[in-house]
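Progress note, project year one: complex with shikimate-3-phosphate.
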Amino acid sequence: MTVRPARLAGELTLPASKSVAQRALIATALTGRRFEKNAPVFRIDYPGADVISIAHAMAALGSLEIEQATDDVLIVRALGTPTDLGSPEAPLVLDCGNSGTGMRLLMGALAGLLADRPGAVTLTGDASLSARPMERVAFPLRRMGARIETAAGHAPLTVTGPAPLAPIDIALPVPSAQILTALCLAALATDGTTTIDLPGPSRDHTERFLAHCGVDISRSGETTTSTTITGPANLELRSLDVPGDESSAAFWLAAAALHPDAEITMRDVGLNPTRTAFLTALHDMGATIEIRPDAATGPEPTGTLIARSGAPLRPIVIEGLRSADLIDELPILAVVMAGTPGTSTVRDAAELRVKESDRITLTCEMLRAAGIDVIEHDDGFTITGSDHRYLETSGEVMRVRTDGDHRIAMAAAILEVTGVAPRPIVADDEACAAVSYPRFFDDLAALSGPRPAPAR
Ligand code: S3P
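Model obtained:
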């Protein structure tokens, strides 16, 4: 028997943006100098495991020193351009853990570092990361001149130098900020202007961050975009406040929209306009979210979000470019759809199948296990939801398969705690939430307060 908490209420500090923090850490290698004195220090509050993995990889590369690495804070001192980049006989091996973003960004950064230097660096990752496609980044980097070998399109992969790079003009087939960023980091080592066109929406943290570090980079277009970057350029590392992660905020926005009695406040949340698609989707479904923007202090806008329960929800159809804009939030959006009366659909989201897990299959399995009506499509799902909220659930506890995917584990927890699921459910691996949000279950407990005793 599980009993839904009577109220979800409180104030939270979210983990640091995974996207922004990893860009900042990788940038420590791209300064074009070694720091002896006055080395810039980055402080990143509440880093997820991906961020810590990439900090360790950059420490192994010799571009930073870790002063503190806990769930609460990561403090690193930049050392600058690495001096030893391995050799083809003895490559330097960097472990990216579960971080697809880290591995893909590092491919571009290493191609740049190895443009005019001998060396060989091998990137490895865990089983989930080793199953993810890497040719989408290796292929355009090779067109710039990089030498990259993958294991049949996957990690482990090795970047070898010297391999001089030239600027390119390229139109990417997918709207991927990871590929765009890898190409931008490589373009820093070229002589000339690189132009990268994307066919749909993507986050612009790279443009903002590199411009903050003094690079000549700009983006035009709002949906389909064109980014130009001019090299050669070394980064001027500057301190940076890493905002709270927008995708982590999504779990609490969903929880408040679904729970019958909730008020959740989150401060210092990233409000980058390329990351607000989930706020817009919830707004379109009828949820009540107050947004209080902060005064601008750095390249990433931030603000306070206050999510309140009580508004009736209506179904939504997510398709076309909108799916790309919401790609990381679709598992938790599926949970909101399950708690919304009527039929909601996600299409054009086949990319979900090559994230940390096959998120289409696992999201559908999770909802089905919880007794919710869902149809799986090649590129999405159709969910028929209800606004019934179960105060208590009983019967056999359904274990949700996560395949170690943090977003599935957290989505399952929100499904359970909001009373949307008619049966008790639990993720088979709750610890994997730490990939992006180590304190997720502590925060959930704090919001839930003391649980009422089950009725006899
Ligand atoms: C990210 C970009 C997105 C996103 C990933 C982080 C980034 O991937 O899904 O979690 O930090 O650039 P794609 O760029 O492949 O769409």
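The chain has two domains: 2-15+244-448, 18-230.
The pocket of shikimate-3-phosphate is lined by residues 19, 101, 176-178, 181, 203, 327-328 (CB under 6 Å).
No further modelling is planned for this target in the current period.
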